[in-house]
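Contributing new records

If you add data, match the layout below exactly. Sequence lines come first and carry their own label; structure lines follow with theirs. Keep one chain per record. Anything else will be rejected by the validation script.
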Amino acid sequence: MAITSLKFFAFLAVIYLLYCLVPRQKRWFVLLGASLFFYVVCGSLRLFVVTLLQILVAYGAAIRTDKQQREGVSTKINTAGILTCLAVLFQIGALLYYKEMNFFVTNGNVLLHLLGKESTLSLWQIVAPLGISYYTLSYIAYILDVYWGVVSPQRNFLKFCLFGIYFPIMISGPITRYQEIEQDLYAGNRADYQGFCFGLQRILWGLFKKLVIADRMAPIVQEIWSGDFYGWCVLIGVLGYAWQLYMDFSGCMDVVLGASELFGIRLPENFNTPLYATSLSEYWRRWHITLGAWVKDYVMYPILKTKGLQTRAKKWKKKYGKKMGKKMTTWIGLFFTWLVVGLWHGGAWTFVFGSGLFFFLMIVGGQILEPIGKWCIEKMHIPTQSFGWKLWQRIRTFVLFSASISFSWSASMKDGFRMWARCFKPTNLSSLLPLASRADWFLLVIGAVIVWLISYGKQKEDVRMYVAKKALPVRWILYLVLLFAVLICGVYGPGYDASSFIYGQF
């Protein structure tokens, strides 16, 4: 049951109706039942045992840790800390087993080959539980936050289960923290007209980005990457993939956040117009925001606070100066942070490099070369606050981001670099035109302009509030225009076109 399917929206409508009919104190029961049903339909009842075990570990460890800390028993052994570490290691172990095991097997075979061993390890046939990449990070954050005293543990097991498998976030996140949604999740918020409208418009906007733009761009990118294209065509394919990914992922997040908003539950934003970023660091603060915040708070900061690194930092500050010593310490934290980000994206070196270490190299390299850049700007008298300079920074940042994630499309690192080598061979841009009809190219251009205008508007004010201030007929005309744009112009999979979808579903 894909979240862009009619089955999902029928399911959502039924749950919304039940949510409105049930007394407010019991509405979280409706969400729990819906989440269990969604998990079984979209995932596996057998694998739910794994998810339930992870929930039990997080739930039990948090309560036990809180109890020991409140009792204040003085012992030489920090039992609360040990219990927290064991619970976190269990969550990490489950994630590594289901998502990264074959990565370790593959690299183990490479190591055996280098050592001259003839035996090889077999790849494992593993099916991961639904949403494990997202909810595991939420459980780890919850366990650590309870240990650090940031939140109080949830003592109602069923309520904690709802936090653990809340259905809108089970497919693609966002990565939630308990304190962010605790109040809304169990409050049984009143279903009001504004929340309904805001949720509806967010869902429609997400479907527009996903079905009209991303899914229309996908076959073009696929053809460029797998076909015999060179030069500018390859570069357009790389940029096109980054644009497709942004439309696909952010569109999915809009549907998820809109569906949750129907129930009065505000989930954390995952995107903040990343196309307006002027550096890779800023881009990642605007792209997949919840993942970036998670690795910063639960990977980078704990590493920087370790006693060994702080001792090393003092020595570096004395030897290389306070500013450089601080940078070198930060770089160590950044390395492990980006390593975790790369591994989280996928069990292959293409992800470890393209979605992780590439950004580390670019960010650190930029900091090292920063004095040279400033010198060049001063010598050439470049107005750094001008529109032209900001535009250049945004284009440069998007190209670098596109270059990095292009490796995730490649079968191997070698294929990724080979693809980039094709950029330096001449080609004719007109060879791209037959990859799609004129209507498709027109819709892609119009869609890009609309998204850019909305993104530009968000820099000035809340676009949704701006629409909400309009008269009722104007608002609903806009909603209907967006709805019919999705129905008529959307792409609904191989073998189907917009007309057959409309007539088949009404």
